[in-house]
């Protein structure tokens, strides 16, 4: 299958890099901060606790569990302190190996590129800087600039980036990973939607709830885009 497109827009987390690497980086930042301030517990021990809980499937209350388990830490840090440390740290993350190759190929072909991502604005900006993406794409839209109510599946981000790329919706393609929110708005606007589904993603096992949440195409590697879109 080969399709012609004027613009390719990427999701960020678990699309251009593996999100689990950000989780690990954030846990390390929190562990270092605690290890430097609390003499009775080491950074390694804190990191192991956080990571083991995450691997066991805990989501959203990892720091609550940490402060319940380590009272000496709770005497020094609040939940807000730990969340801010996690969100505000400069992450140790890397692009998927094929991402750079694919983006350079599209650049050489004159295909416009953008990033459309949800998430806390400061955290997403730090990820983009750490990954060196600002010089690789033509436009970046972070929906959190308007508030969480405008995150996907709200169509505002898609409309905004189409305008910035000066392209019609039917000329654009969106590559994401999450069928719970990534494809509904894009499908309704007439975009070509592609899901990257590969081992290591946090939402690899998720299935779309209905046809509007389903991507038109599923790929196993970003390199598959080269045969689909050129």
From TrEMBL:
Provide a Gene Ontology MF annotation, just one.
phosphatase activity
Cofactor(s) it depends on: Mg(2+)
Which GO terms fall under biological process for this protein?
A: small molecule metabolic process
Q: What keywords tag this UniProt record?
A: Hydrolase, Magnesium, Metal-binding
What's the protein called, per UniProt? HAD-superfamily hydrolase, subfamily IA, variant 1
Upper lineage ranks? Bacteria, Bacillati, Bacillota, Clostridia, Eubacteriales
């Amino acid at each position: 299958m080969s399709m012609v497109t004027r613009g390719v827009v990427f999701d960020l987390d678990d699309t251009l890099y593996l999100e689990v690497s950000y989780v690990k980086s954030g846990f390390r930042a929190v562990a270092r901060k605690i290890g430097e301030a609390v003499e009775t517990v080491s950074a390694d021990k804190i990191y192991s606790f956080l990571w083991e809980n995450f691997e066991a499937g805990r989501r959203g209350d990892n720091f609550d569990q940490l402060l319940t388990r380590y009272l000496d830490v709770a005497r020094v840090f609040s939940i807000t302190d730990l969340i801010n440390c996690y969100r505000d740290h400069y992450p140790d993350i890397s692009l998927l190996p094929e991402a750079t190759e694919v983006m350079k190929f599209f650049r050489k072909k004159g295909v416009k590129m953008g990033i459309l991502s949800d998430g806390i604005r400061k955290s997403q900006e730090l990820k983009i800087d750490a990954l060196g993406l600002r010089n690789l794409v033509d436009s970046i839209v972070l929906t959190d600039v308007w508030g969480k109510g405008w995150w996907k599946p709200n169509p505002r981000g898609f409309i905004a980036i189409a305008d910035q790329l000066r392209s019609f919706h039917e000329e654009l393609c969106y590559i994401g990973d999450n069928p719970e929110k990534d494809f509904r708005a894009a499908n309704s606007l007439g975009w070509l939607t592609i899901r990257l589904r590969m081992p290591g993603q946090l939402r690899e096992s998720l299935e779309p709830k209905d046809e509007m949440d389903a991507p038109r195409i599923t790929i196993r590697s970003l390199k598959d885009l080269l045969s689909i879109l050129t």
